[in-house]
Amino acid sequence: MNIGETIRKNRKMQNLTQEQVANRLGVSAPAVNKWENGMSYPDIMLLAPLARLLKINIDTLLSFHEELSEMEIGQFINELSEEAYSAGFEEAFRHAEEKIREYPNCEKLILWTAQVMNGSLIMNGNDLAEKQVYENKILSWFEKVMVSEDVELAKGAQIYLTQDLIRKEKYEEAQKMLDKIPPLGFDKRSAQIQVYEGQGDYESAYRTLDEMLYQKSTEINTVLMQDISILCRQKKYEEALSYAQLMEKVSELFGVGSYIKHAAYFSIYADMGDKEKALDSLEAMFDEFDIKGKTKESNLYKHMKFKEDDAGVEKMKGMILKSFDMDASMDFIREEPRFIKLKERIINQENN
């Protein structure tokens, strides 16, 4: 975004006309119009009063520290996730705030940072003295992105805010937020595949198809897991188990990780309070917790590229166990010898 676009965007946010801006600064309306269209620039003496009028700082007005590349954002998010795990939530949050202050208009950075810090707060935030303060700040980041002109970024923020309202049982407000979210649009990947094929770039076409298949199979399991969650709340365990069996078939058919089926069975048996079967499923889940091992072995995804990250797998196991420590629903197995032994094994694997 250049200075003209910044002036136009923030002028509209303050509900000011070009003429009102001109009158406040002692210039003509055509001059403001030229600024916004990139035909000229404000005099240096006008920068401070213009920034005050638009309620932004001069750095923002001049588009300093505004954008990062997607690669730079991704690298920062990876570092932030690692820091949240190793140094703790508060240190990572301080780092996140500093980055957003440096790039206050980089909406993708703000959204991805909010998602990471929200996940970390859910996993590790129960013991924080100022948990509500952190929640409110993260919420404000989502709210800022919610009004983005980038439809996809805005939708991502709106989806989170909807889920937050549902969690707080504010269902009428959640429905209003849902109504604002645009329907799923055209998936350009289908057309992109045709372009690749037309250009003779078959490898890219196959890779995109593999990625779409993997995404769709993951979405199927996500839907089935939601079915299981609702059925368990209604104590319809027999029906829930039939959905777990479907997840097992989907996982095997599409090669998306056998640990997923065990996670489904564990959630059901845990809700039933069946210690032995819950522990059987939990042990199997951690034994087969390779995340993408089955996927990498499957012919369905032979064109996809996978990052080798065995350390990340062990770290994820540790995070799941840590979340169990704060989950009251796990009290029924917490003192069981099998659970204690499993926990010790996972911690040892993570440390080695």
Report the order of strands and helices. HHHHHHHHHHHHHHHHHHHH
* Form type: globular
Overall number of domains: 3
Low-pLDDT windows of residues: none
The percent of residues in helical segments reads: over 70%
Which structural class best describes the helix and strand composition?
mainly alpha
User: How would you sum up the major sheet?
Assistant: none
N-C termini distance: 47 Å
> Could you tell me the number of beta strands?
0
How many helical stretches? 20
Beta-strand percentage? under 5%
What's the gyration radius in Å?
Answer: 25 Å
Mean pLDDT across the residues is: 85
Summarize the structure.
The chain is mainly α. It is 74% helix and 0% strand. The chain folds into three domains: 3-61, 434 Repressor (Amino-terminal Domain); 70-180; 188-306, no CATH class.
Describe this structure in words.
The protein has 352 residues and is mainly α. The protein folds into 3 domains: 3-61, 434 Repressor (Amino-terminal Domain); 70-180; 188-306, no CATH class. The chain has 20 helices and no strands. The longest helix is centred in the middle third of the chain and has 32 residues, at 202-233.
Task: List key phrases describing it.
352 residues; 74% helix; mainly alpha
Strands, helices and their partners?
Blueprint: H1 3-13, H2 18-25, H3 29-36, H4 47-54, H5 58-61, H6 70-86, H7 89-102, H8 107-124, H9 131-146, H10 151-167, H11 171-180, H12 188-198, H13 202-233, H14 237-254, H15 259-272, H16 275-287, H17 293-297, H18 310-325, H19 331-334, H20 337-351
